[in-house]
Every structure is written in structure tokens, then in C-alpha cells.
């Protein structure tokens, strides 16, 4: 990209990435929301997604250490509280564990991450490293997948409650709480990117960062499909037929 985009053009380019590459388009999510997943496929998705959920406050803490401005740190700190809570049993991670518990998993097994797919772990680790190694602007831009999450959460919540009798509003509480948080977080991050991406090089770096993040989310679903739909579970990953990790 050689020409500098206006803020409106840059926002449109960022949103176009989501329209084309966000993981709500992945066949696994369509299968999940459409009620076509077997119970063990839903379990595998929730188990592996925990690895990603647990890494988000670690990623955000890494990003926050690179912020020289106290006001910016205070704004970003809220993300960590949203996920970790202010006390045990609070926050998004605790709500995700209520989902995995409702699906029959032992919480200690989920937290140990022993059964996580290798591709899930590699993708999540790559995202944390990206936010540690790239510029602050790129790290913030990579979080802009939150612009698109309210739509997928709405589809997930309504679809899963309609199609699966083994989930309930209580076990799906993560998804009822997350949309307003994501909307607030993405509004702040978008404003930051539009203000600070002033050169063509910086703007391209932001577009590339968001593309990278969509790849992080997409490849996790590729791995789930390969392992639990096509049946090619790699060594060490959770195997439903063994009953490992289930109460």
C-alpha cells in the first residue's frame, strides 16, 4: 500500500478483512451453530477454546507493559479484569469453565490443558508472541476481531440453545456477558488505530495484524475439523472414547 488512507478508508479496509476472513465463515462454526455437531465435537470445541480464552489476559498484560501512558494502561487493564475477574469465580474465564463443566469436563483437566490440540496451542502461543514482539500499534490492531464478535456470539448463543439440549442459558453465560464488553473494547481499539496509523506503512501493518489474528482463529477450527469431524486426532489430544477428563 503506497497511498495513505483516510480514517474512513482505513476503517472500511479493516472491516472488509472481517467480512472476508472472520471465523464465523468457517464450516465448523456453521456446523456448530446449525446443530450438526455431535456432543463430543461440542466438547472438543469448548475444551480447545479454553486454551485461547486463558491466554487473552496474558496477552493483554503483555500489551499493557508496553504502554507508557497511564490513561492508556487504565483503559487496557479493564480487559484483564473482564477475563480474570476481581475475585475467584468471577470473569470470562470462570464463565467459560462453567461451560466446560456443563459439558461434563473435570475443571482441573480443562485448566491443565493436557488434551489441547497441538495446532491450538501453536496458534495461541503465536498470538501471544505477536503481541509481545510487534509494535504496540500492531498489537492493538490485532484485537480488532472484537469488531465482529457480537455477530458470531449472537449466532452461537441462539443456535446452540435451540439445537443442543445439553447446554443451557446458565452454561452459556459467557456469551450473554461478552458482547457489550467486546463492543466497548473494539470501539477503543479502533479509535486508537485510526488515530495512530498515520503512514501508509503503519496502516498496512495494522491490516496485516488483523489478518494475522483472523488466521489465528481460523486455524484453530481447521484443527478441530481435522481431529474431531474427520477423525484424525493427534497423539496426546483429548480422545472422547477414553472418557479422559470427563467427570
UniProtKB/TrEMBL annotation:
Pathway: Cofactor biosynthesis; pyrroloquinoline quinone biosynthesis. Keywords: Oxidoreductase, PQQ biosynthesis. It catalyses: 6-(2-amino-2-carboxyethyl)-7,8-dioxo-1,2,3,4,7,8-hexahydroquinoline-2,4-dicarboxylate + 3 O2 = pyrroloquinoline quinone + 2 H2O2 + 2 H2O + H(+). GO terms for molecular function: pyrroloquinoline-quinone synthase activity. Residues 12-222 form the Thiaminase-2/PQQC domain. Its EC number is 1.3.3.11. One of its GO terms (biological process) is pyrroloquinoline quinone biosynthetic process. InterPro entries: Haem_Oase-like_multi-hlx, PqqC, PqqC-like, Thiaminase-2/PQQC. Belongs to the PqqC family. Ring cyclization and eight-electron oxidation of 3a-(2-amino-2-carboxyethyl)-4,5-dioxo-4,5,6,7,8,9-hexahydroquinoline-7,9-dicarboxylic-acid to PQQ. This is Pyrroloquinoline-quinone synthase. The lineage of its organism: Bacteria, Pseudomonadati, Pseudomonadota, Alphaproteobacteria, Hyphomicrobiales.
Amino acid at each position: 500500500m503506497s497511498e495513505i488512507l483516510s480514517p474512513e478508508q482505513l476503517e472500511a479496509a479493516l472491516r472488509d478483512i472481517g467480512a472476508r476472513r472472520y471465523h464465523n465463515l468457517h464450516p465448523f462454526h456453521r456446523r456448530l451453530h446449525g446443530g450438526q455437531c455431535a456432543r463430543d465435537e461440542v466438547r472438543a470445541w469448548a475444551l480447545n477454546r479454553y486454551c485461547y480464552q486463558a491466554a487473552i489476559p496474558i496477552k493483554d498484560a503483555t500489551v499493557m507493559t508496553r504502554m507508557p501512558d497511564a490513561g492508556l494502561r487504565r483503559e487496557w487493564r479493564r480487559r484483564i479484569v473482564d477475563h480474570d475477574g476481581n475475585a475467584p469465580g468471577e470473569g470470562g474465564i470462570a464463565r467459560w469453565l462453567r461451560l466446560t463443566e456443563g459439558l461434563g469436563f473435570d475443571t482441573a483437566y480443562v485448566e491443565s490443558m493436557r488434551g489441547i490440540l497441538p495446532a491450538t496451542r501453536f496458534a495461541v502461543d503465536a498470538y501471544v508472541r505477536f503481541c509481545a514482539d510487534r509494535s504496540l500499534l500492531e498489537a492493538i490492531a490485532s484485537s480488532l476481531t472484537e469488531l465482529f464478535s457480537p455477530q458470531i456470539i449472537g449466532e452461537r448463543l441462539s443456535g446452540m440453545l435451540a439445537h443442543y439440549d445439553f447446554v443451557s442459558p446458565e452454561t452459556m453465560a459467557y456469551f450473554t456477558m461478552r458482547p457489550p464488553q467486546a463492543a466497548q473494547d473494539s470501539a477503543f481499539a479502533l479509535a486508537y488505530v485510526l488515530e495512530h496509523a498515520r503512514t501508509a506503512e503503519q496502516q498496512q501493518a495494522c491490516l496485516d495484524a488483523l489478518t494475522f489474528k483472523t488466521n489465528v482463529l481460523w486455524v484453530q477450527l481447521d484443527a478441530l475439523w481435522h481431529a474431531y469431524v474427520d477423525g484424525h486426532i493427534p497423539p496426546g489430544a483429548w480422545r472422547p472414547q477414553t472418557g479422559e477428563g470427563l467427570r
